[in-house]
Amino acid sequence: MPPPTDSALSVSEVNRRARALLEQGIGEVWVEGELSGVSRPASGHVYFTLKDSSAQLRCALFRNRARFVAAPMRDGDRVRVRGRVSLFEPRGDYQLIAEAVQQAGEGELLLALERLKQRLAAEGVFANARPLPCPPRHLLVLTSPTGAAIRDVLAVLQARWPQAKVTLIAVPVQGREAAPALIAALGLLNRQQALDPSQDVILITRGGGSLEDLWAFNDEHLARAIFHSRLPVMSAVGHEVDTTLSDLAADVRAPTPSAAAEMLVPDRRELARRLTGLERQLQRAMQARLEREGQRLDHLRARLRHPGEVLGQKRRTLMELDARLRRALQVRLATERRQLAHLQRRLSACHPQRELARGEQRLSRAQARLEQAMQREVARQRERLVGLARQLQAVSPLAVLGRGYAILQDEQGQVVRRADDTQPGQALTARLGEGRLQVEVKRRLK
């Protein structure tokens, strides 16, 4: 053992380091076990122990998370707890800080939901992101007429934007009939939108609840119906920690029904304050502009001169410009005269008669060369033609006929090459070296 030194750690420092190692080394995990020793003090926190056949783990569920646990927590229940492993430094207690508690049977259900979520995401069903008009001209709310969600939405709308036009479409928001009813309502509203273009936003909402209570909003067909809706859809299902497929497929998700109403309409009081501020800014800007223009007017008035003085100045400027123009014209005229004399001398040296004589001489020499070249070319082409005629005569079939051969042709002018191509009595034409003969086939010889 190393001897004790002045640099020994305090108990608090050891616990602090242990807590950091636990939180960073293990992180957030899911733990399944049996509830034991569930305690709910006045603070609203929930303390309990998770145990199995050979071990136990102390857990703490703080008040801000405990209110989202819908199912009651009783000793002996088997649950799944999501949380992070930590350490309570004052007592050195090793514990699990719980974030969510579910019945253990929900694990397979959540696994199937996660697979469906991944498949829909790959298909692009969660790709909607159309902006919502703010405020909407006509808000269509799909929810239960007796639930707390519609009361929260209407209360927020009344406080923030009383002139909002809202239509409640009563549908069940829990149980087997909820998803088909929501899908049918979405289809009906999209068809009616052609008749009433002012209907521009759909809000699907309900309050919080257990996983089973919210399960209708994880329906695959409902998510697809939201994705294909021509009207933009906002979804506000459950509380902030609840996320359903309907939330993901909607154009905009709100954490709660009240938050949805706040996102849909502006706050009239805030707008009034902004208008008041803008009015003050406008008044200050107008006052500053008037002051600047007044100073500018004073400056221009000081610069203003009598018209007679301005005319005199313009007259002197005009006379100066006239004198400069006359001098420039005289200089330009002298320059042009010198250039004209120079061009006349050049023209005399290049009289057209001289150029014509030189051109006639060049033309005569060119004509003589052309005639000589034509004669040589005609002689060369004549010799080439004679050679080609001799080559043609050597390969011409007419030369073969001149040696005593004949070409037989049938009535269609086809050349007869074999005796089997003729019939007795058939008329043929024999082409000789000079002239043709009309012959008839008597018989064929082998």
Q: What is the strand and helix layout of this fold?
A:
Blueprint: H1 11-25, E1 28-39, E2 46-51, E3 56-61, H2 63-66, E4 78-88, E5 93-103, H3 106-123, E6 138-143, H4 148-160, E7 166-170, H5 178-192, E8 199-206, H6 220-228, E9 233-237, H7 245-249, E10 252-253, H8 257-264, H9 268-303, H10 307-349, H11 352-395, H12 397-402, E11 407-409, E12 427-431, E13 436-440
Helix pairs in contact: 4-8, 5-6
Catalytic activity: Exonucleolytic cleavage in either 5'- to 3'- or 3'- to 5'-direction to yield nucleoside 5'-phosphates
Protein name: Exodeoxyribonuclease 7 large subunit
Subcellular location: Cytoplasm
What does this structure look like?
By secondary structure, the chain is α/β, with parallel strands linked by helices. Among the domains are: 11-104, Nucleic acid-binding proteins (OB fold (Dihydrolipoamide Acetyltransferase, E2P)); 111-269, Rossmann fold (3-Layer(aba) Sandwich), CATH 3.40.50; 401-440, no CATH class. The chain has twelve helices and 13 strands. It has helices at residues 11-25, 63-66, 106-123, 148-160, 178-192, 220-228, 245-249, 257-264, 268-303, 307-349, 352-395, 397-402, and strands spanning 28-39, 46-51, 56-61, 78-88, 93-103, 138-143, 166-170, 199-206, 233-237, 252-253, 407-409, 427-431, 436-440. The strands form three sheets. It has a five-stranded mixed barrel. It has a five-stranded parallel beta sheet with strand order 7-6-8-9-10, sandwiched between helices. Strand 1 and strand 2 form a beta hairpin. The termini are far apart. Belongs to the XseA family. Its main location: cytoplasm. Bidirectionally degrades single-stranded DNA into large acid-insoluble oligonucleotides, which are then degraded further into small acid-soluble oligonucleotides.
